[in-house]
Amino acid sequence: MMTVTEKAAYVKGLAEGLNLDESKPETKLINAMLDVIDDLALSVADLEDELAIVSEQVDAVDEDLGDLEEYVYDDCCCDDYDGDYDDEMYEVECPSCHETVAFDEASLIEGFAECPNCGEKLEFDFDCDCDDCADEE
Questions:
Q1: Rounded to an integer, what distance in angstroms lies between the CA atom of residue 124 and that of residue 23?
Q2: Cα 98 vs. chain centroid, distance in angstroms?
Q3: What is the pLDDT of residues 50-68, one digit of tens each?
Q4: β-pairing, 121-123 with 112-114?
């Protein structure tokens, strides 16, 4: 299949093969139109090249975004919890004894824990804002 620039060159070659009289106004008009067609063909070729570059960049960004979504959303706090939380600790102040105590993420997910200093039962309201949990509401 011929490209637009090849087609423009082919049409220009056909016109040159006609051996038109350069002094006639029709020939001047045809030559001017052929010049416009040639310019348009070059512009289209440039746009196609730029589109190919942008398309490659969008594909790369889409792939990176997919990796990022997998990384972020696979660590979601939803019902598909498999019990494999990191050993991160979170500090909270006990409302009874006002001591700062640390709990792991599993305790927060369960929604309650006991203060190791005073024995007060602490309740946690853990709201997940991921898309899966938002759909359940």
A1: 92
A2: 46
A3: 999 999 999 999 999 998 9
A4: antiparallel
Q: Which residue type is seen at 76?
A: C
Q: Report the amino acid identity of residue 21.
A: D
Encoded tokens for 110:
């369960």
Neighbours of 45 (CB within 10 A): 15
Q: Which residue has the tokens 């494999």?
A: 84
Q: What φ, ψ does residue 51 adopt, rounded to 5°?
A: -60, -40
From the list 117, 109, 127, 126, the residue with the least C-alpha distance to 93 is 117
Determine contact, residues 13/37, Cβ cutoff 8 Å: no
Q: How far is CA 103 from CA 1, 3, 12, 118, 120, in A?
A: 68, 67, 80, 15, 14
Query: What amino acid occupies position 116?
Result: P
- Which pLDDT value is given to residue 131? 63
Residue 12 CB-half CA count within 13 A = 16
Question: Could you tell me the CA-to-CA distances from 58 to 45, 55, 97 in Å, in that order?
Answer: 20, 5, 55
